[in-house]
Amino acid sequence: MIEETYMNEYRFLLDRLKRNRENVPLELLTTKYQKSYNQLKEKLRSMTKEILQDIVLSNLQIERIQAKGKYMEIITAIRESGILEKVSHAVFHQQDADLVLEYAGQLREIVHRIVEGREENAS
């Protein structure tokens, strides 16, 4: 599971993004401060991905023989759910870590339901 210090850093960076957007004109963020602004966004993108993977994949077990089919089903379900767009909005427009965690939980439910459902159908 995600360590508290990691989440604290994530919340700090989200807050920094929020403060930057509230206090610095977007034109300056994308010109004068472009390098540091892009680094901040990339760090948040990377950390968000790690958080989602950690939450969604923890305790997930897929039999090797079924992995490819389940993978495709999971990818399709995630895409169709629209949750990744909501995550992106929560990070880059709302700067809301709790919402990111809520969406991660929703993704986890989708993925685990598919895996468990497949296993039930196979038996």
Mean pLDDT: 91
Low-confidence stretches: 118-123
Largest sheet: none
Shape assignment: elongated
Count helical runs.
Answer: 6
What is the CA-based Rg, rounded? 17 Å
Give a count of the beta strands, DSSP E runs of length 2 or more: 0
In helices, the fraction of residues equals over 70%
**How far apart are the termini?**
30 Å
Structural class: mainly alpha
Kindly give the count of domains: 1
What is the oligomeric state here?
single chain
Q: What pattern of helices and strands is seen along the backbone?
A: HHHHHH
Q: How much of the sequence is in beta strands?
A: under 5%
Can you describe this structure?
- With 123 residues, the protein is mostly helical.
- It has one domain (4-122).
- It has six helices and no strands.
- Helix 1 (4-23) runs antiparallel to helix 3, helix 3 (34-57) runs parallel beside helix 6 (97-122) and helix 5 (83-94) packs antiparallel against helix 6 (97-122).
- The radius of gyration is 17 Å and the shape is elongated.
Give the key terms.
single chain; 123 residues; mainly alpha; 82% helix; 0% strand; elongated
Quick summary:
The protein has 6 helices and no strands. By secondary structure, it is mainly alpha-helical.
